[in-house]
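Question: Hello, beginner here. Any chance you could explain the protein record under this note? Any guidance would be welcome.
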Amino acid sequence: MKKIILIKIILFPLLAWGQIPVTDAATNASIGLVNSQLTNINIQLKAMNKNLARLINLLEKNNNLTSKSKEILKEELEAKKQAPAYVTKSTEVALTLDLKDKIVEAYQTSRNTVQNFEHLERNEIQDFLIYSTEAIVDTKNLFKQCNQILKTKSIIHPEERLKEVTSINTKLEAILDELIDYNNRLEQINSYRLARKTMVNLNKN
C-alpha cells in the first residue's frame, strides 16, 4: 500500500506536467478556431457592408429616377393641358375657320337668292329658310366646340385635339355641301318652272 502511495506521489507531478502542453495546445487550437471564425465573420460583415452600400446606392439612384420621372410626368401633364402652337396654327384649325366663313357666306347668299326665286311655292322658300337657319346654328355650335377643344385645360394629347378638330371639319364640310346642294335644287326647280311657264306662254301665242 505504501509503495502504491509512493508511486502516485512520484508519478503525479510527472502526469500533471505532461498534461500542461496538451491543455495549452487545446486552448491554442480553440483560440485559433475562434480567431478563424472571427476572421470569417469579419469578412462576411465586410461583404455585407459592401452589399448594403450598393443597395443604398441603388435605392438613392432609384429615388432620383423616381423624382425625375415625376417631374417629367408633371411637365407632360401640364403640356397636355394646353394646345401647343403646332395645333392652334395647324391646317386643321385653319380649315375650320375657312369652312365657317364659307358656310356663313353660302347662308347669306342662298337666302337672298332663294327669296328672289319667283317660281317657288311659299312653303318651299320657308322650308329652306328654316333649314339654312338650323345649318348656321349647327355651324356656330361646332365652331364653339372647336374653340373649347383648343382652350380646354383638360389633359388631352395634342394629336387627340387635332383628331377632334378634324372630326368637326368633316361635319362642317357636310353642312356646307348640303346647304349648297339645297340651294342648287331650288334653283333648278325655279328654272324648270320658269321654262315651263315660258313654253306655255309661247304655245298660247
User: Anything to note?
Assistant: Residues 2-22 have pLDDT under 50 and may be disordered.
